[in-house]
Amino acid sequence: MVEWTDKERSTVSAIWEKIDIDVIGPEALARVLIVYPWTERYFGTFGDIFSATAVLGNAKVAAHGKVVLKALDSAVKNMDNIKATYADLSRLHYEKLSVDPDNFKLLADCITIAVACKLKSALNPQAQATWQKFLSVVVDAMSSQYF
Amino acid sequence: MSLTQKDKAAVKALWAKISKSADAIGSDALSRMLTVYPQTKTYFSHWPDMSPGSAPVKAHGKKVMGGINLAVSKIDDLTNGLLELSEQHAFQLRVDPTNFKILSHCVLVVVSSMFPNDFTPEAHVAFDKFLTAVALALSEKYR
């Protein structure tokens, strides 16, 4: 079981409150596709995602970015039960989408960077530590139903 | 995943914008590394103070960014350009190479927070590739 101190809980909520899902979601997903281009393999139906300009202007990428970040809300609201909360999504990513679980970490890193761009020095070292702990629990939960 | 001419240009362009703040970037990145990845503290047990922004952390952050500055100037041949540093890391410091990735990530987070408008996705991919190449050059002499 993951243990959270009161300070960690309030840090995660405080960060989440400052994030605009409609901005950070698209930005994080765009960074994943641009910085780690092999992830393009999962988005065959999105049209042109083969250059930074194309990715940044792609409506499907933006829409999907919002979907992904919205799903993080479940973790923020259920910090004591993240593994169970993501069991179905994990199964979906394994069985239907066949996503290599290493990619979850890449997305987590891009979310952190997008958050850092927005929050700047408000994401101080301790806040970053807590935020990354939170995301690593989500990443583990997303990998939990794989083989 | 070697650096293209486009990558090198992007790295130099970003560096031109951020290098004035190199000392602050180094100190912040190192502070974050020690806080977010406490296992890295094992390399600095000889410091009287490992807390974020402390004197040893600031001084060491400056040193590390000096290395990055050198790497930017030797971007066309990192292996040879960083030979001395590689020998130092391999034979004296013996830092486990996984930590290069950890510190690189912290540098990226700091650059994002200090220069959000300059750290575009294009700058991000080029700089990430660059730091990966630097890590590879630093590990050159390990075995």
From TrEMBL, chain A:
Which UniProt keywords are given for this protein, alphabetically ordered? Heme, Iron, Metal-binding, Oxygen transport, Transport
- Keyword check for Transport: yes
User: Which InterPro entries is this protein grouped with?
Assistant: Globin (IPR000971), Globin-like_sf (IPR009050), Globin/Proto (IPR012292), Hemoglobin_b (IPR002337), Hemoglobin_oxygen_transport (IPR050056)
Positions of the Globin domain: 3-147
Signal peptide per UniProt: none
Q: What is the protein's name according to its record?
A: MN-Hbbeta3
**Molecular function (GO) terms listed?**
haptoglobin binding; heme binding; metal ion binding; organic acid binding; oxygen binding; oxygen carrier activity; peroxidase activity
Cite a single Pfam family from the UniProt record.
Globin
Q: Name one GO biological process term.
A: hydrogen peroxide catabolic process
Q: To which species is this protein native?
A: Dicentrarchus labrax
Look up the domain of life of the source: Eukaryota
- Which protein family is named in the record? Belongs to the globin family.
Instruction: One GO cellular component term, please give it.
Output: haptoglobin-hemoglobin complex
Automatic annotation (TrEMBL), chain B:
Gene Ontology cellular component terms for the protein in this record: blood microparticle; haptoglobin-hemoglobin complex; hemoglobin complex
Annotated coiled-coil segments of the chain:
none
Q: Which InterPro entries match?
A: Globin, Globin-like_sf, Globin/Proto, Hemoglobin_a-typ, Hemoglobin_oxygen_transport, Hemoglobin_pi
What is the protein's name according to its record?
Answer: LA-Hbalpha1
- Which UniProt keywords are given for this protein, alphabetically ordered? Acetylation, Heme, Iron, Metal-binding, Oxygen transport, Transport
**Single GO molecular function:** peroxidase activity
Q: Does the keyword Transport apply?
A: yes
Globin domain segment(s): 2-143
Q: Pfam families given for it?
A: Globin
* GO BP term, pick one: hydrogen peroxide catabolic process
Per the record, the similarity remark reads: Belongs to the globin family.
